[in-house]
Amino acid sequence: MLSQIVRRSWLLVPVDDTAPVGEAAASAADVVVLDLMEFVPEQAKPAARERLPEAIGLAARHGAEVFVQVDKELLYADLKAAVWPGLSGIVLPRLESAAELAEADALLWQLEEQRGVRPGALQIVGVVDTAKGNYRAMDIARASPRLWGLSLGRADLVMDLRPEPSGEIHLMPYLMQRLITVANAAGVAPLGAWWRAPARGMLAPPDDTYQAAVRGRHIGFKGALCVRPHQVEPLNRGFTPLSSELEAAREVIAAYEAAADNGTAVIRVQDRIVDVATVAQARQLLSVAEACAQRDAAKTQARQRAIA
C-alpha cells in the first residue's frame, strides 16, 4: 500500500562528477538520483562505480534521500557498486518484464546481507519507458514487494511512439492515466508530470515545470524526475497542496460532519455533491500537506546541521 513518504522532486545527476552531486545535495530535492546509466560515458563507468559510497554520503548531506539509477544490462556490476548504508533504493529504467524486476529484487537481497543493510529496506522505482514495458506494466508492478513507484520515460517513448506534428507525443495523456491506474491498483506511487509542448520535460524552465507538476498532481502523480537544480523548487511547490485547497478541504469536512450528526449522508457544498468518499479525499489532502510540511522541516534541519 502507498505510504505517506514524500518524494516530490527527483533530481537526476551523473555520479562521475563531484560538483553536480554537491549542487544536487544543496538543491532541497526530496530525492537525489545518482545516475550510472544515462549521463556517464561507458569508459567512465568503472571509476563512477568506485565513487558511489562517497557520493551517497555527499548527496544525502542536506536531507535528501538517495537512489541510484542503474543499467539493467549491467545490473550486477551497478548494484554491487550501489548498495551501501545510506541508500534508499534504485531506479531501474527500460523494464520490459516482471522477470527483470524479480532479478533485481533477488540481487538486492544478497547485497543487503553482505553490506549490513536491513533486509528488504531498499526500494525500487521502475521505469516502463518502452512500448513493451507499458504493455506489461501490471505484471511488472506486481513482481516485487520492493517496488515503490512506477514512471514513464518520455524521451524513450518518443522512439517507440513518435511525436505528433504539434510536438506532443501520440497517446501520452492515455499512457499517463493508464500508468496512474496501474500504479494505484498495485499500491505503488505513480511518478511523472504533465508536460506540454513546447516545454522539454526534464529540461523545462521553472514556470513550465511548476505548471506540469500541478497538472500532474491533479491527475494523480506523486512526484517527478528532473535534471536541473532550478526545477526542484517548482516540483516541490507543484506537488504540495495549495493553502486554498486545504481551506476548501476543511470546509467540506466540517460541513459533512455537521450534516452527519443530523443523519444526512450526502450534502451539497457550493457546487459540489459531498459524500463519505469526498470527505476521505479531503482528509487525504490534509494528510499529504502535513507530510510535505514535515518533509520540508526535516530537510531544513539537515541543512542547518550540515553548515553548522
The string of secondary-structure elements, in order, is EHEHEHEHEHHEHHEHEHHEEH
Strand order in the sheet with the most strands: 7-6-5-4-3-2-1-8
Number of helices: 12
Helix content: 40-55%
The CATH class assignment of the largest domain is Alpha Beta
Fraction of residues in β-strands: 5-15%
What features would you describe in this structure?
- With 308 residues, the chain is α/β, with parallel strands linked by helices.
- It has 2 domains: 9-238, Phosphoenolpyruvate-binding domains (TIM Barrel), CATH 3.20.20.60; 243-307, no CATH class.
- 50% of the residues lie in helices and 14% in strands.
- The protein has 12 helices and 10 strands.
- The chain has helices at 18-25, 45-59, 75-82, 98-115, 131-135, 137-141, 154-161, 172-186, 206-219, 232-238, 243-261, 276-307; strands spanning 9-14, 31-35, 65-69, 89-92, 123-127, 147-151, 189-191, 224-226, 267-269, 272-274.
- Strands 7-6-5-4-3-2-1-8 form an 8-stranded parallel beta sheet. A two-stranded antiparallel ribbon has the order 9-10.
- Helix 3 links the parallel strand 3 and strand 4.
- The longest helix has 32 residues, at 276-307.
- It is globular and about 70 Å long.
Structure described in brief:
The protein is an alpha/beta fold. Helices cover 50% and strands 14% of the residues. Helix 3 packs parallel to helix 4 (98-115), helix 9 (206-219) runs parallel beside helix 10 (232-238) and helix 11 (243-261) runs antiparallel to helix 12 (276-307).
